[in-house]
Amino acid sequence: MNERLKQAINTFEFLSPNPILILDSDYKLIYKSGDCDKDILNEFVKLLKENINHNFKAKLKNGNIFSSSLTMIYEFVFYFISIERVDSNPHNFEDPILKKISFFLDLVPDGVAILKNNEIIFRNDVLLSLIDMPLEMDDSVHYSKYIKGENLDKLRNIIQSNKEKNLILELNTVTGDNKWIAANFSKVDMDGNTYHIVSVKDVTEQQTLLRKNYAEKEYLNHTLESIKEGVIICNKDNLITLFNSKATMITGIQSADVLDKNIGEVIRVVDSNDKLVNYLTKDDFKNDDVLIFSEDGLFRHVSVSVSNIIGAQGTSQGKVMAIVDISEAKKREKEILYLSYHDILTGIYNRTYLDFELKRLDTKRQLPFSIIMGDVNGLKITNDVFGHEAGDQLLKKVAEVLKHSCRVEDIIGRWGGDEFIVLLPNTSDEEAHTVLRRIMRDFESLEQKDSINGLLPNMSLGYGVKISEDEDIYEILKVAESNMYKRKMLTNESMHSSIISSMKTTLYEKSNETEEHSNRIYKNCYKIGAKYNLSDDEFNDLELVCLLHDIGKIGISDSILKKPGVLTEEEWVEMKKHPEIGFRIAQATPELKKIAKYILYHHEKFDGTGYPKGLKEYEIPLIDRIISVVDSYDAMINDRSYRKALSKKAAIQELIDNSGTQFDPEIVKLFLEDIKEK
Fold this sequence. Notes:
Elements lengths: L2 H13 L4 E4 L5 E5 L4 H13 L5 E4 L5 E9 L2 E8 L12 H10 L5 E6 L2 E5 L1 H6 L18 H13 L3 E8 L5 E13 L2 E10 L1 H23 L3 E6 L4 E4 L1 H7 L3 H4 L4 H4 L2 E2 L14 E9 L5 E12 L5 E10 L1 H15 L9 H11 L7 E9 L1 H8 L1 H18 L5 E6 L2 E6 L4 H16 L13 E9 L6 H18 L1 H19 L4 H17 L4 H13 L9 H4 L7 H7 L2 H10 L8 H6 L20 H15 L11 H10 L7 H12 L2
Antiparallel strand pairs: 1-2, 1-5, 3-4, 4-5, 6-7, 6-10, 8-9, 9-10, 11-12, 11-16, 13-14, 14-15, 15-16, 17-19, 17-20, 18-19
Helix pairs in contact: 12-13, 12-21, 13-14, 17-18, 17-23, 17-25, 23-24
């Protein structure tokens, strides 16, 4: 059977649900479809011989009424047999193909349209009903009236392609409703014309359901994309069917690279024992803290749960894996753990951890167990004078020295306030003493660049050693503390001297003051003090004030102290704070406490316009009135960063001009008498 005949058979079989007989020109049967027994065949052969090339109908012995139409296509004769309806063939068509086949087109259950050279020439009643068109409406209305947009383009492409094809189209009905149709296209060429026979089914319900399912699937996909968890779905063969963007973010793997791949080859999960987890063999799997391999070569902390997807028959249809990245949570957990055991300021261990370690290490195998305790020298004065920020810097520096001095296995921590301890398990008395001496040497080796506002960090240290298992470890801690305080008392005086010396050094480095300047003004102040018959204690105070009256300048910014030009108003406000800073330093230092008031008042003026208190005349202590004159004269005759030195004559004139306003007139007179004698 040639291809043209096959094409014709396919077309008419599609259009008609009834039996088809195909006979050749000798009335020999060459093709039969449907239920058509021998009696029917013989009857039709008889009728055909009598009514060749005519439409006819006949009633068989069984009472069935048949109608037939003879159509010649190429060299074959086609005989179509269908049960005739009551209304028979109401159509009156001019087109030859319609005359031959229209009688059965109203019998088929589907809608049928016939296009001749791309124009509709026939619609059966089912199709008219489908598009809500009255039966009497003109059949010549173009199909573009009902099919538009993309659907129209698809339809035209099929018609122009000259191929048989199935297509789902959206249809605009006469009443304005939208329906979906499934259209099957068959093409027949006859007498120079091209016919397209289209079978149409209403699939609106199926398409609505399909689109609903699609919308639900899209909603599900959108939901899976928007949630914070990585979601991976695989089928019953463990092949990945869905891999959302969060899963990509966690693993670094692109969805397109893993679809249809085995999930076991893509996702590798490692437990806390560094072993690969075979989660695919379990119906349900959950672990709140495992490691998952990432594309960047690293493992990330994740929480993983795997669940079976159970179908309607109760069998597994696949698995869904949910992945939550807990890396940040683990990081925060470590930070919280770190903070719970570490001193926030210094970064070394805190008392909570030290207490824990004292109890944990208090075992026989850790003996001898030594403990070093240290107390920071000068923390109070640093806090009181320069503020707690400077005190914090001092504590940080102390912690740095301890970490540098101690061994790797030693446990260093801040016990509280200005106290630090070092735990040294398996450390004898001699070894502990060696560590303590090394710590002391490191503090003694600090240079001025390591100072905090002029104070070099230092500690008083003591240690204790637990030798016997029966000894209480906290009693050993008390021994270390007691030895520390003994050391502190022994070195207290030298420590304070060291603090004063350190502050003096810093003052000379930061400001224009020099030790020579301090010595010169004391020499001249001593002469004036002698004329006032000062006592020995007053002379001692006078000497200290001459050396340290500007000590508060160590708390003033270098940019102000060493500025080459005139200070701004804001800078002057800062500069005028140095008497109060010096006062606090002296108050916090036992050796300087008695001269604190002199340091506070050394910038008061005789007329009451000075600072910080605005004292007037004899409210100002005598020592301050003496220093005011002598210090000003020495400053005027020596170079400063902001000006050149004045001549002695000019400096003397300044003293005379400001006598009674800035300076005590009597002291100016005594001082000028003394320098004129030289």
